[in-house]
Write a structure and sequence with these properties.
The complex is a heterodimer of chains A (about 110) and B (about 110). By secondary structure, chain A is an all-beta fold. In chain A, about 0% of the residues lie in helices and about 55% in strands. Chain A is built from no helices and eleven strands. The chains are: A mainly beta (about 110), B mainly beta (about 110). The interface of A and B includes residues 41, 48, 96 and 101 of A.
Chain lengths: ~110, ~110
């Protein structure tokens, strides 16, 4: 089945620093979504980016479909960015999302 | 207002008992899903429904039974609960179609003792 690998496993930032999170996947993805999971556990969709580059606020995602990889860039990090960032993909059938284990981010004041 | 409502938020159950996890979505989506998140594991797909019909089932155990009484409801019945069932269960929904965005509920955290 599909596999999603995320790196790094964890990251510590000083407030204001930038970060880049990586997502690699094993098969063609028709949809790729980045999620934020808060320390309390709730999941929020950040953006969808099956190919190309997309921006929302301080987040930029670049997906290179042929190379089966996506990145999420966080600029000017804030303490409220602390949490786990999850990458998830669907295949052509689109019946389900397959998740990576996430990158845990801690932003210190 | 939350677009996907999951109830209860927390649940403690005794081994061997039966519980129902509730999920309602108010996004007008036709596809609904259940996912499970256990400690130190990725979110794991369990079921997908489209127009109230089961599309995919990746749960090995028949103790897990989804129930869709209405288009915007997908409850999860779990029977003969085991401690290994302890996890956070997330409901999600999406419009139908391969490139659809998924929206998740806030989860039900289940502890089986």
């Amino acid at each position: 089945g599909q596999q999603v690998q995320q790196s790094p496993a964890s990251l510590v930032l000083q407030e204001g620093e930038n970060a880049e999170l990586q997502c690699n996947f094993s098969s063609t993805a028709t949809q790729l979504q980045w999620f934020y999971q808060s320390p309390g556990g709730s999941l929020v969709s950040l953006l969808s980016n099956p190919s190309g580059t997309k921006h929302t606020g301080r987040l930029t995602s670049t997906t290179v479909t042929k190379e089966r990889r996506s990145s999420l860039h966080i600029s000017s990090s804030q303490t409220t960015d602390s949490g786990t960032y999850l990458c998830a993909i669907t295949d052509s059938a689109g019946n389900k999302l397959t998740f990576g284990i996430g990158t845990r981010v801690l932003v210190r004041p | 207002d939350p677009k996907i409502i999951q109830k209860p938020k927390y649940l403690v159950a005794v081994t061997g008992s039966e519980k129902i996890l509730i999920c309602e979505q108010y996004l007008g989506h036709n596809a609904m899903y259940w996912y499970r998140q256990s400690a130190k594991k990725p979110l794991e797909f369990m079921f997908s429904y489209s127009y109230q019909k089961l599309m995919d089932n990746q749960t090995a155990s028949s103790r897990f039974q989804p129930q869709s009484s209405k288009k915007n409801h997908l409850d999860l019945q779990i029977t003969a609960l085991k401690p290994d069932d302890s996890a956070t269960y997330f409901c999600a929904s999406s419009p139908t179609g391969a490139n659809s965005d998924y929206t998740f509920g806030s989860g039900t955290r289940l502890l089986v003792i």
